Amino acid sequence: MTDEQVASLCGAVRDRFGPAGDHLEPAPAPALAGVELRPPRVSPPDSLTSLCRGDIYERALHAYGRSYRDVVRAYRREFPHPPDVVAYPTRESEVVDVLDWCAGANIAAVPFGGGSSVVGGVEYDPGDAHAGVCVLDLTAMDRVLEIDRSSRAARIQAGALGPVLEDQLRPHGLTLRHFPQSFEVSTLGGWLATRSGGHFATLYTHIDDLTESMRVVTPTGISESRRLPGSGAGPSPDRMFLGSEGALGVITEAWMRLQDRPRWKGSAGVRFSEFATAVDAVRVLSQSGLFPTNCRLLDATEALISAGVGDVPAGGALVVLGFESADHPVAELLDRALEITAAHGGVVPEGERKLSDEGDPSAGREGAAGAWRGSFIRAPYTRDGLVRCGVIAETFETAVTWDRFSELHATVTETVDGVLSKVCGGGWITCRFTHVYPDGPAPYFSVLAPGRPGDELAMWADVKQAASEALLAAGATITHHHAVGRDHDPWYRRQRPEPFGRALAAAKAALDPAGILNPGVIA
Amino acid sequence: MTDEQVASLCGAVRDRFGPAGDHLEPAPAPALAGVELRPPRVSPPDSLTSLCRGDIYERALHAYGRSYRDVVRAYRREFPHPPDVVAYPTRESEVVDVLDWCAGANIAAVPFGGGSSVVGGVEYDPGDAHAGVCVLDLTAMDRVLEIDRSSRAARIQAGALGPVLEDQLRPHGLTLRHFPQSFEVSTLGGWLATRSGGHFATLYTHIDDLTESMRVVTPTGISESRRLPGSGAGPSPDRMFLGSEGALGVITEAWMRLQDRPRWKGSAGVRFSEFATAVDAVRVLSQSGLFPTNCRLLDATEALISAGVGDVPAGGALVVLGFESADHPVAELLDRALEITAAHGGVVPEGERKLSDEGDPSAGREGAAGAWRGSFIRAPYTRDGLVRCGVIAETFETAVTWDRFSELHATVTETVDGVLSKVCGGGWITCRFTHVYPDGPAPYFSVLAPGRPGDELAMWADVKQAASEALLAAGATITHHHAVGRDHDPWYRRQRPEPFGRALAAAKAALDPAGILNPGVIA
Hints:
Chain A is an alpha+beta fold and 523 residues long. Chain A is built from 15 helices and 18 strands. Chain A has helices at residues 3-17, 56-61, 68-75, 92-105, 162-169, 188-194, 237-241, 275-286, 300-307, 331-343, 367-388, 402-424, 456-473, 489-495, 498-511; strands at residues 52-53, 85-87, 107-111, 132-136, 144-148, 153-157, 174-175, 211-218, 221-224, 250-257, 259-260, 264-272, 294-299, 317-325, 353-356, 391-397, 428-437, 440-450. In chain A, a hairpin with a 2-residue loop joins strand 17 and strand 18 (440-450). The longest helix of chain A has 23 residues, at 402-424. Chains A and B meet through strand 8, strand 9, helix 7, strand 18 and helix 15 of A and strand 8, strand 9, helix 7, strand 18 and helix 15 of B.
């Protein structure tokens, strides 16, 4: 964002926070000049120097992910735990070489993906446990290596960023159609390692479902699963590496299931005067077998802030519906979905039901659906602007069964509201659904509050702690698609079955006996 | 089958095999009288005697699954490795007690499910490795314990057989809708442990997809995953136990995702004059996003034998399509599917396109679709009759990407044909698809051949060996839904990534340090 945009944003949030936000001021744009880093503790052997970078810029760039904490500290030019070395392997054998060096020299190896972690997944303080930290950045391995048109699948290197990958698929009329909010700055390998959530609000929600096979370099050998459309041969090998967050190996490539580019689209923005009936409508939709591509519920504040839709009554909700197909028109599906929402009191304003075939790509780009989509992609940039204004901006997300959602929503809102008024003197929390399943939604909460200069991280920690406890107490998961990292670790360990945790630790010890892979994460 | 039915069946197959089948004669129905078993090597402690059975009937009944080898040996009254004890726990604490006893006394603990394993999953020869074998039969734990109507989920004990489970769901208007061929004689726990394949030909193919959470007794603690509609918190705990085939723990209950009972159904039987174009049609269907409930392709011989449909040209195929919904009419979906099949030359005979709503439940019960369904459920019984006639009857199944299917089909057919003519002097192999995915089908092969009395098992082993090698060489999986057991073990170990195998073995050692759980299977 430009300085002018930040100043304007700052004015807007001051107005909304009232007196508690009076002190907020835009800070200057961050710069790398003057940043000082601890000297590197280790340096790569001659055989690896051509792949490795040790300059301040590279080390600072790879010191953090993109969480609120990360952004605040970067603005403060605080980098207490920068990596000592950043390795850019250009082929798989170089990944093997880097891991060999790390294992031999007791250096922690942290796969970076695109560095979009919002959960402390890429920052490691080795203390006395490791001699140093080497970050692996695979963005030089970004090619689509092979396309199987008849099976609609492609072999893709793990370092490909979202747009890089889609650019290579487009000429073939194909698309992975996985668009996490971090799409522009995250990699296929990162999506796989963190079980990223994407474009489809129903059915193919996680990257897991789009994965045909994976190739993973572990310190004790390369694991390559067979390309299979389905299998029942023992526990799924891929499912062990999906979500392993760099703790079991470095993903180097994967065969991914692709989609034909959609020809027909339909969308609608449905207004509800009551949040609870909107939730009911979405529940029925999720169980209808219609499988809308988009099925996002936004509370009234969320609709205003994140989609700029101002006609949702206070206490009500906006439901953004979308259907798409490369095979058949979607009007019937959309209309049946709108029968369901209408039966729950949902209203579609004039012009908010859109349909298109190939000739008219505007469906889904106008009205509430279009507003939501545009703002969804801009949100991370807006967040960074808010941080510059001194605003505490946190999002957390979960999934829970339908029977427990109402209580979860109430307790999380009440708990976070309480912490905000006590700790920040104000602020607000909003809720939307990012994905929905027949047995429950994936609610996503956004928190904005005025920070006190210098105290922001402690204030954030109070909010995070309270919110996480509320999620766990309500029977929900500590994360639906943001991953675990180091920030969610305490709750993750309480959430997962204890025997499973032991099994996973044993699996890690078998694959990574030196314990160098992303220490402190997952296993 | 009655003696008369078997005699009639025997005549029919003799006619079809020609001279190679002249010697086939129906054997007398099997009886338990005269069966002798090795004396039990171990007996349960006093605290467990009320749960345990050691009589010949129970031990013989739990000595085998239902594979061809098992049925042949049972007819011969050969039971070389019967369990020493059969335990019928009635509650979870008794499962814990049985495993404690087994771990302390070095007794192998083999979970039995319903005993429908066709891959040697429940027969264990302890040799000197274990003091004895205790089979756990959980069919006394068969209750639906809890129903969450709004999330459409139920907590169900693992010992429930298919019909027992559905009977308890029906009054609530709900159904698990998982109908493996073994439905009547297999349990929920068995389905979960073996990643069973069910009713849905697309989308929810394996029981995995219907699983919300699981509770598993391991020798070192109880693992219970959280009920969640979706999660991204590390590798999925459930996916480690799904497919673990009793090697990691005994599943005692699970929260399962349910369906509303369908109100609208539609079906059609489409004839193709060429097998290859039928395959193309099914590939396009699988990638259309229409998600038919049924989408089975049968080659001409398979159509005749297994569905009694005689009007499919030699070298052609029958595609059985079905749609169902509890929410909306399915005529549009069926018609779009039939446009796709017609574009590939598929023909629907007069009266073979059926639609019904609540008032007419006959759709899917008549025509080719109905014939296929009826015969699908009777097939295991027919197989047992064939074995009584001396026929070698084997089925094996796999999954493979679309680009490799044609070669797989050719090499498997040629390989097995070659073995049959060399070893059996005749016989035939047929192919159908049980499930289809956007990136490939799950082909299922049936083999029938005249056996030489006394040599059947050696002949079967030759066929099995050749078929399994052909599957692996073609890039397919050794099993899509029959599981691994002991029969597929050599190929399973070659198929799975070596590092994953080590990780799984380490996980097992952590959960089952005494190595008592279903030894020799999976881990």
